[in-house]
Design brief:
GO terms for molecular function: transmembrane transporter activity. Pfam families: Sugar_tr (PF00083). InterPro entries: MFS_dom (IPR020846), MFS_sugar_transport-like (IPR005828), MFS_trans_sf (IPR036259), Sugar_transporter_CS (IPR005829). It is found in: Membrane. It is a single chain. It contains 22 helices and 2 strands. A two-stranded parallel sheet has the order 1-2. The chain is an all-alpha fold.
């Protein structure tokens, strides 16, 4: 009997190669994209009042500027996820960078309110590609310390929020909102400059049967990290699927299609993939995970963006509701930038908290605990407080909700197999954007109309239900290897 050839998986290779220079480049590249997304989202805290004043907008028209961005992100998160899962991670984030940087800069020149709303919607479509970069970065990180490193990745979001608050504080009082839009679009251009140096995910390549391409990426990683790959042949845990092809079969099939002139059939098949990806997420083995994740992302995003927008809403709203006397607009604006900047700093301890507990107590318990602590910090806001007390409560709430949404964003791509990872995470992220769409219209609208009690109770109800959904998540992913197929995606407890 002949000897059985040794094999190793992508996870085995990543563990052998460790976290080195190669992963550092991947982390910085994807992190810049994440910071750029945060900056575009944080803009919504600053430009609303300025645009409202310039074009005499109603409160609902002002809220729509925020909501259309999240509506675009809702469309983009699913769309770019499907592109990424079917055509590669690199193609997914290339198009997101092109759309975000291009349209973001063009929105600077919006001649009227309608044009601004349209431009910001398409900026949102580009920003919806954030989950693609998260999945791409995740697939290069070794399993044992994946949680901690993905928290480091999330640190770039906080850098983006703090940078945007600083830019607004420096630019808005003198140069105005158009300059803020222009400068905030610059980080997305950096992605295009260094795009040529970015590798495709070896896990994605291996899952698609392109093992030789995956091996070349892993060999490049080994050279940069100055480590050796395991001995044997690269393999995948992916089960054979009768609809899948190896590389040679794919080439032969492509030639046959070309000769037969079946381009229309191929185009239809590619469209069916989009529907098929969603169908896989709702298959019996994944439907519980998918539905609970959708609820988890909706509640976390509603609360996260709500805390951001409440910071500006309470800064203006408390004085408006409690006094009819006029205030100096410049002074109010300064208070707004200061309050948003201070609460943005809360993301740093929030990420530190997440990094400390995510690989110790697990993803599920981390998210649930931080959600219920957020609940306790927002509850006192049903009463009017001094500015310092309100800012302190929002600061603490933002620490916890930042840690919660960061940990949930690690759990989501971990729980899905490679074949639907970007689509699954992107779709869940889309439900988060629904929360972002509703939040400015409903919750912040209540604050603007002086219904503070109703707004806070709405937040509390959503946080409580989200915490229950997290507790019901099917299994923990702490320390589990990423899986390639649905059949192998269940991690033992």
């Amino acid at each position: 009997m002949g000897e059985v050839a040794e094999t190793y998986t992508v996870d085995d290779a990543l563990i052998s190669l460790g976290f080195g220079k190669f992963q550092t480049f991947v982390l910085i590249y994807s992190g810049v994209a994440y910071a750029a997304e945060a900056m575009e989202v944080m803009i919504l805290s600053f430009i609303g009042s300025a645009v409202q004043s310039k074009w005499n907008l109603s409160p609902h028209e002002k809220s729509l500027i925020s909501s259309v961005v999240f509506a675009g992100m809702l469309v983009g998160a699913y769309s770019w996820g499907v592109v990424s899962d079917n055509y590669g991670r690199r193609k997914g984030f290339l198009f997101t960078a092109l759309v975000t940087s291009g349209v973001g800069f063009l929105s600077t020149f919006s001649p009227n309110y309608i044009a601004l709303v349209i431009f910001r919607f398409f900026v949102g479509v580009g920003l919806g590609g954030g989950p693609v970069l998260f999945s791409w970065c995740l697939e290069f990180v070794p399993a044992p310390n994946r949680g901690a490193w993905m928290v480091v990745f999330s640190f770039f979001w906080s850098i983006g929020t703090i940078l945007e608050a600083s830019l607004a504080w420096a630019i808005m009082p003198t140069l105005g909102w158009r300059w803020l839009l222009a400068l905030s679009s610059l980080p997305s251009f950096l992605l295009l400059i260094f795009y040529a140096f970015t590798p495709e995910s070896p896990r994605y390549l291996c899952m698609k049967g392109r093992k030789s391409d995956a091996l070349r990426v892993l060999e490049s990683m080994a050279r940069m990290n100055k480590k050796a790959l395991p001995s044997g042949e690269l393999t995948s845990d992916r089960k054979a699927d009768p609809q899948d092809f190896d590389e040679n079969t794919q080439r032969a099939h492509a030639e046959q299609v070309h000769k037969a002139g079946s381009s229309f059939s191929e185009d239809v098949a590619s469209k069916v993939k989009c529907v098929g990806s969603l169908y896989k997420l709702l298959a019996p083995k994944l439907i519980r995970t998918t539905l609970l994740l959708w609820m988890g992302f909706f509640g976390n995003a509603f609360t996260y963006y709500g805390v951001i927008l409440l910071t500006s809403g309470l800064s203006d709203g408390n004085s408006k509701c409690r006094s009819t006397t006029s205030h100096n607009s410049t002074k109010e604006g300064t208070h707004l930038y200061k309050d948003v900047f201070i609460t943005s700093l809360a993301e740093l301890p929030g990420l530190f908290l997440s990094a400390v507990i995510v690989d110790r107590i697990g993803r599920k318990l981390s998210v649930a605990t931080m959600l219920f602590i957020t609940f306790s910090f927002l509850l006192p806001l049903i009463f009017h407080h001094k500015e310092l007390t309100t800012t302190a409560l929002l600061f603490c709430a933002r620490i916890c909700i930042t840690g919660s949404i960061t940990t949930l964003s690690i759990y989501a791509p971990e729980i899905y197999p490679t074949s639907v990872r970007s689509t699954g995470y992107g779709t869940a992220n889309s439900f988060g954007k629904i929360g972002g769409i509703i939040c400015p219209i409903v919750a912040v609208g209540l604050v603007d109309d002086c219904h503070l009690l109703a707004a806070v109770l709405l937040f509390e109800g959503i946080i409580f239900l989200t915490g229950l959904a997290v507790i019901l998540f099917p299994f923990e992913t702490k320390g589990c290897e990423l899986k390639d197929s649905v059949e192998s995606s269940i991690c033992p407890a």
